[in-house]
Amino acid sequence: MNRDSLVFGLAGTFFGVLVGWVVGTQHIAPTSVATPTAATTAAPSGAQPAVPPFDAARVTELERQANASPSDASVRMQLGNAYFDAERYDQAIPWYEAALKLDPKNVNLSTDLGVAYYYTNQTDRAITQLQNSLTLDPTHLKTLLNEGIVLAFGKQDFAGAARSWERVVSLAPDSEEGQRAKQGLDGIRSAHPEVGPAK
């Protein structure tokens, strides 16, 4: 199961090539999703990793379990994950939404849903969902990191992104999320000096 990669893959793609406002597209580049404007994106050289294969048999079994257990949030989350990992974000969303109705305090699930919204070009919904995650856990590193990514690349709110990433760095500077946030901050500040240093 690939939940951690939803952040680190996304962050690695963006931050690995972040020179000013350059967005890489080598991890997850769904063709049906509007990516940041062409004027602000560039794909790095090299082949894109293959999308994990969609396991239709597993999904069929999970759907059978979901139908048999209408109050089981876990199986719905697993279905969302199966679709997400296969880059079928629009199909992941209803399963994540159904799971979250049953388990509304699950911060990881809430964040997964927010990222799926972002990948389906629903930036405002993504931000709202990530903010919901932060009401559940204001120190959730993956949520804060993703919030910065969505603010920077979805809304071009560089100051807001910097605030999210500064929070990650202050909470866990030596964590993988902290290192990614530092890279993002360095990239934004070199391309957008108006953001300024941390206060």
Major beta-sheet overview: none
What's the CATH class, please? Answer: Mainly Alpha
Q: In angstroms, what is the radius of gyration?
A: 17 Å
| CATH topology term | Serine Threonine Protein Phosphatase 5, Tetratricopeptide repeat
First-to-last CA distance:
38 Å
Query: Given the C-alpha coordinates, what overall shape results?
Result: elongated
Whole-number total of structural domains: 1
* Element string (H = helix, E = strand): HHHHHHHHH
Helicity, in percent?
55-70%
Give the helix tally. Answer: 9
Beta-strand residue percentage: under 5%
Instruction: State the secondary-structure class.
Output: mainly alpha
At CATH level 2, the architecture is: Alpha Horseshoe
Tell me, rounded to a whole number, the average pLDDT.
Answer: 81
Which helices and strands appear, and what pairs or packs with what?
Layout: H1 3-16, H2 56-68, H3 73-85, H4 89-102, H5 107-119, H6 123-136, H7 141-155, H8 158-171, H9 176-191
What does this structure look like?
The structure is a single chain. This protein is mainly α. The chain has a single domain (3-195), classed as Tetratricopeptide repeat domain (Serine Threonine Protein Phosphatase 5, Tetratricopeptide repeat), CATH 1.25.40. It contains nine helices and no strands. α4 packs antiparallel against α5, α6 packs antiparallel against α7 (141-155) and α8 packs antiparallel against α9. Mean pLDDT is 81; it is low at 5-46.
